[in-house]
Write a structure and sequence with these properties.
The protein is mostly beta strands and 761 residues long. The chain contains 6 helices and 37 strands. It has a domain of 125 residues. It has a 22-stranded antiparallel barrel. Strands 1-6-7-4-5 form a 5-stranded mixed β-sheet.
Length: 761
């Protein structure tokens, strides 16, 4: 461990070195290399942007993508999942039907809870524990944002942690200079209702924007009720030419009846959208405050400083949390299983509270160093997060307090902390048409865990006695290099490539045990390589093609053959990911083929993950089921194997890693009318590391078949008018498909239609 004084010195040293970085702010301009790009408002200079403008994207030494305001208007996404499918390389797995618990994976990484993706809002961490527990149980509504940016290449050095796969940055609207007001009401099937309003204008020498959104739906299953409200306030002030201030406040509240578990094989066959867990309840609240300051020290020197605080609380009461994903009190003879689910079975509450805060400064330098043009960006960040985790097992299906029956009481009670110092330097050195972008990031993390008393069980029931408190600490330091390059080989053609070190720290619960002991776990690391070409095929038709290799090392996996909860962990897992991505955007208007009031447009996002496989020894066992005994052959993607026998699955496909992803659309704009038809398709995926093909009775293993769905979106409003009507249809032909097996079978999106009206002032 580096001593605090040495750590401070290293951070100071980083801040004294100058390497250049690409420009981070700018406008999306009409007529850029992608035909789908249209003009949007410039971002406030106080905000940190991953990609920035499409012109800036040409300077990024790696794969990047921007989902523009125009893309969002044409697609009319119901949630963030719909929007991210526009980006090649990104795999989004549905869960409940409202997009509130996104499962985002990049380049073959498992999407569960978006644990290997860094989510940002205006450059600030969106997750409530990115260092100590990077699991996403919250997401703002898509209506809050005007643009989405995705970065997958060497430019990730500027951000952290969780840079194995990529960075997703959500951009909020700019504070308006003049008064604006608009409101939207939309409704649809499955009890869908969306109310959205925004008002803004000049205030107190600056400007303020207020956005309110309410969404409700029954989601993808019966016996669900998803309800959430988001309030967002943003203010911006300029103090002379050299200082700018942005303040953001938000409150998100969700009160939903949403199940945790899916269905067994027989249950799904009988009623694929059934949900017997009617007493599951999910409540969450998130409060956020961010303040950002811009200081123009000179024409070539700008300092941006952001301070942030998030509070997040989550209570999830559920009847389905043991390893078999059946009633948690299955050991209680009075429960007996599903037949007693609504009468005798208890439930458990997974209760979480998080406080996250930090401050970050970034110094941008525009200069010519020894006659070499370029830019420099230097950043330093201090970040803290505090977790409080409790598990209360109740006696009845509707219990909301610890009980006294079998397996009841306080079963988890601990606090988990992570404190992180980070510094980075990234440069862009220009040599005519060629540019080199070296960079390095340093992460210094301290972990702490305090295990508070829990109930001691005697005869399976709380005895009245409790365990003794324990505590433990650990630390982790990493230096993460990266280098990329771009070469403008033509007026509208850029070759790019790079290599960088990806990084994901272990969770607090992995590196410090329930007894307070320290586990010798390294961070999860990867070497990421890519090469690509982007530009215009002809004016109005832009493309971006990338080939990538991700050598993922030191993955934290169970050391024992059995694995499972409580298994000893080790940094031993290795996976290899190889494939390609292709994006295409075409616009007849940008090409000059049609007039200004008409545009025929098309887009395509294609992902091919040729390899996403275990690249080291990994022991797993194929289950025996449907009357098979140990040794009987069962079908897997690697051929028939004997069930009930531990074996090495090295070379097997990773779970939840589709080989193919396709998202394409064709549409037209004409005199206020916009319409598009979209096709989204995914190849089949395995649900476990054995690559089992037949479905087990509990539904948690077996092949998930590929699927294709057709979506429609249309709108009309007089050009320059004050109103607009729109409609969307998702899964137009109501294709039944499976999206997840991890906790039992979960169905994908059914036919969903929405009709709405927007009024503008």
């Amino acid at each position: 461990m580096i001593l605090p004084i040495a750590r401070t010195a290293l951070l100071a040293g980083c801040a004294s070195i100058a390497f250049p970085a690409f420009a981070e702010n700018g406008d999306l301009q009409q007529g850029s290399s992608s035909g789908a790009i249209t003009t949007t408002a410039a971002q406030p200079a106080t905000e940190i942007v991953v990609v920035g403008s499409m012109e800036d994207a040409d300077t990024i030494p790696g794969s990047s993508a921007v989902v523009t305001e125009t893309d969002l208007e044409r697609t009319r996404p119901l949630n963030v999942n719909d929007a991210l499918r526009l980006v090649p390389g990104v795999f989004v797995r549905e869960e409940e039907g409202a997009g509130m618990r996104p499962n985002i994976g990049i380049r073959g990484l498992n999407p569960v809870r978006s644990t290997k993706v860094l989510l940002l809002e205006d450059g600030i961490p969106l997750g409530y524990a990115p260092y100590g527990d990077n699991a996403s149980y919250y997401h703002p509504p898509i209506q809050r944002f005007t643009r989405l940016e995705v970065l997958k290449g060497a430019g990730q050095i500027r951000f952290g942690p969780q840079t194995i796969g990529g960075v997703v940055n959500y951009i909020t609207p700019e504070v308006p200079d003049e008064f604006i007001a608009n409101g939207t009401v939309a409704g649809g099937n499955r009890d869908m209702l969306m109310l959205d309003g925004m008002v803004g204008g000049r205030l107190a020498g600056g400007g303020v924007l207020v956005h309110v959104n309410h969404n409700q739906t029954d989601g993808f299953r019966d016996n669900q009720a998803l309800r959430f409200t988001d309030i967002f306030v943003k203010g911006g002030w300029e103090f002379g030419p050299d200082h700018g201030l942005t303040i953001k406040l938000s409150r998100f509240r969700e009160d939903s009846r949403v199940g945790y578990s899916g269905l067994r094989r027989d249950e799904f066959a009988a009623d694929p959208r059934g949900n017997p867990f009617v007493n599951d309840d999910f409540q969450t609240e998130r409060l956020n405050a961010t303040i950002a300051h811009r200081w123009n020290l000179s024409d070539d020197l700008t300092l941006r400083t952001s301070a942030y605080y998030h509070y997040f609380t989550r209570d999830w009461w559920r009847q389905s949390s043991n390893s078999g994903q059946r009633p948690n009190d299955s050991s209680d003879p009075a429960c007996g299983g599903m037949a007693n689910l609504l009468t005798a079975c208890g439930n458990e509450g997974r209760l979480r509270d998080y406080d996250t805060y930090g401050i970050e400064s970034r110094l941008a330098i525009d200069h010519a160093l020894f006659g070499i043009g370029g830019e420099t960006e230097i950043g330093v960040r201090y970040h803290e997060e505090r977790q409080r985790r409790r598990q209360w097992n109740g006696d009845t299906p509707t219990a909301r307090r610890p009980g006294t029956s079998v397996n009841a009481g306080v079963r988890e009670n601990n606090e988990r902390d992570a404190t992180a110092f980070a510094a980075f330097i990234q440069s862009r050195l220009e040599f005519g048409a060629f540019a080199l972008t070296p960079g390095v990031r340093a992460e210094f993390i301290d972990f702490a865990r305090r295990n508070l008393p829990i109930d001691i069980l005697v005869g399976g029931r709380p005895s009245g006695a409790v365990t003794a408190a324990t505590s433990g600490t650990s630390s982790l330091d990493k230096v993460l290099p990266g280098i990329g390059a771009t070469w403008a080989i033509g007026d509208n053609l850029t070759l790019y490539g790079g290599v960088h070190r990806g990084f994901a720290p272990p969770r607090v619960e992995d590196i410090i045990t329930a007894a307070g002991g320290s586990v010798d776990l390294d961070a999860e690391l990867s070497w990421n390589y890519e090469i690509g070409l982007r530009g215009d095929i002809v004016p109005g038709i832009g493309f971006d093609a990338t080939a990538f290799v991700m050598d993922f090392q030191n993955q934290i996996v169970a050391q024992s053959v059995a694995g499972g909860v409580g298994a000893t962990l080790t940094s031993a897992g290795e996976t290899l990911h190889r494939g390609g991505e292709f994006a295409l955007n075409a616009s007849s208007r940008a090409a000059g083929w049609t007039g200004g009031d008409t545009d025929v447009f098309a887009r395509l996002a294609l992902t091919w993950v040729a390899d996403a496989e275990y690249n080291s020894t990994r022991i797993a066992t194929a289950p025996c089921f449907d009357g098979a005994t140990t040794g009987a052959l069962v079908a897997t993607g690697a051929g028939a194997v004997p069930c009930g026998v531990a074996r090495n699955v090295e070379g097997n496909r990773l779970p939840y890693s589709p080989e193919w992803l396709v998202s394409g659309a064709l549409g037209v704009e004409h005199k206020g009318f916009t319409g598009q038809v979209e096709v989204v398709s995914q190849s089949s995926i395995f649900a476990d590391d054995v690559n089992l093909i037949p479905v087990t009775p509990d539904g948690q293993r077996g092949l998930i078949e590929g699927w294709t769905q057709v979506n429609l979106a249309a709108s009309y409003g007089p050009p320059g008018g004050k109103w607009e009507v729109f409609t969307t249809a998702r899964n137009l032909f109501d294709r039944l498909y499976v999206t997840d097996r991890a906790r039992g079978i979960l169905p994908g999106q059914p036919f969903t239609i929405q009709v709405g009206l927007t009024l503008r002032y």
